Amino acid sequence: MIAELFNNIWMVFLDTAFWLLIGLLGAGVIKSFIAADTMQRWVGGRGIGSILRAALFGAPLPLCSCGVLPAAISLRRSGASKEATVSFLISTPETSVDSVTVTYALMGPVMAIFRPMAALVNAVGTGLLTTLVADDPVLGRNASEDIVVKSCCSAETESEPEPGQQEETSCCASKEVVKPNKLLQVLSYAGAELLDDISKWMAIGIVFAGIMLTFIPPDWLAQWGQGLTAMLVMLVVGVPMYICAVASTPVAAGLLLAGVSPGAVLVFLLVGPATNITSFALLKQELGLKVTAVYISGLSAFSLMMGLLLEWLLTTQHWQIETNLGEAHIMLPDTVSWLSAFLLIFLAIKPFRRAVIPQLG
C-alpha cells in the first residue's frame, strides 16, 4: 500500500510537471512585459468598463489571494474604483495561466475552459454588486502616498522605503528586481520567485491527490458529494482556507476522483484561492465593512451559481469531465514528463538552484 501511495503521488506529479512549467513560463512573460502603470491605466475609472477591464487584466496574472492584496491596494490608492478593485481581487487569484494548464492536464478541457469563465463571471458579478454600496469615508492611508511592497517569501530586502512612504507586506508578493535582460527576468520570476511561492502548496496538493487516489474508494464521497449540499460544504471549507489556484487543482482532481460532483469541486476552485481568513481585516481597512461583506457574499453566491450551472450543462449537454490522475489527457513522451519533473524538483530546491544557476536567485 505504501509503495502504491508513492507511485500514485509520482504519477500525479508526472502528469502535472510539464504543464506547470509551461504555465510558469507564461506567468513570467506576463509579469515581465506588463508594466505596473499599464495595469493602473486599465483598471482606472468607474462602472462596468473598469470592472470588465480589471477582471480581464487580472485573470492571467500569477498572483495568489495573499499576493494580490498589495497590488489591489496599490490600484485602489492610485484611483481605481471600489468595484474595479473587487473585480481584480477575485479574478486574479481564482485563475492564472499556470493554473489553467495544470487544470487541463488533470481534469481535461471542459474544466480548463469553464474554470476561468466562471472566475470572470464571479469577478464581474461581484464587482457590479459592489456598485450598489455607497463609498465609505476615507479608509486606510492617503491615496497619494506611495507603497513599497516587500515579499516575506524571502528574507532579502531590495531597498528601504523613503521617508513618507508606506509599506505593505504580502506573504506571497514577488520582489521587484531589476534584471539585465527580459529573458533572464522571465526565467528568474518563473523558475525562482513564483515557483518558491507555490511549491509548498503544490506539493501538498499533489500528495493529497495521491492519497485520495490510493486510499479512498471512488464512490465513498459520492454519497454526500452531490448537489447543493456538497457545494455549501465546499464553500464553508474554501472561504477561510488559504490555497493558491495552482495548488488547489490537484486537490480538486482528487476530490473529483473520490466522488465529489464537478459543481462542488468548481466551488472549491473558485472560493479557495480567492479568499483566506487573514485577508479580511485588510479588506475591511481598505474597502470598508460594507464592501467587504458584499465581496464575501457575492463571491459565495456567484460561485454556487456557477457550480449549479456546470452541473446543469454536464447533464443536458452530456459533457464529460475525466479525471485521470496518473494518466494524462495528452500522452507526452515519457522523456518529456520525467525531464520536466526533475527540472521542477531542481528549481524548487533553492540551494541546488542557487549553486548551479546563481543568476536565478
Q: What does it look like?
A:
The chain has helices spanning 2-33, 36-43, 47-58, 68-77, 82-94, 97-130, 182-215, 227-238, 245-257, 262-274, 280-287, 289-316, 334-348, 350-356, and strands at 147-151, 166-170. It has 14 helices and two strands. The chain has a two-stranded parallel ribbon with strand order 1-2. The radius of gyration is 20 Å and the shape is globular. The chain has one domain. It is mainly α.
Gyration radius from CA atoms, angstroms: 20 Å
Instruction: Give the low-pLDDT segments.
Output: 138-179, 326-330
- Element order: H for helix, E for strand: HHHHHHEEHHHHHHHH
Number of helices: 14
Shape, principal axes of CA atoms? globular
Q: Which sequence of strands runs across the widest sheet?
A: 1-2
Oligomeric form: single chain
Mean of pLDDT: 75
Helices and strands in order, then pairings?
Elements: H1 2-33, H2 36-43, H3 47-58, H4 68-77, H5 82-94, H6 97-130, E1 147-151, E2 166-170, H7 182-215, H8 227-238, H9 245-257, H10 262-274, H11 280-287, H12 289-316, H13 334-348, H14 350-356
Parallel strand pairs: 1-2
Helix pairs in contact: 1-6, 1-7, 1-13, 3-5, 3-6, 4-5, 5-6, 5-10, 6-9, 6-12, 7-9, 8-10, 8-12, 9-10, 10-12, 11-12
Short structural summary:
By secondary structure, this protein is mostly helical. The protein is built from 14 helices and two strands. The protein has helices at residues 2-33, 36-43, 47-58, 68-77, 82-94, 97-130, 182-215, 227-238, 245-257, 262-274, 280-287, 289-316, 334-348, 350-356, and strands at 147-151, 166-170.
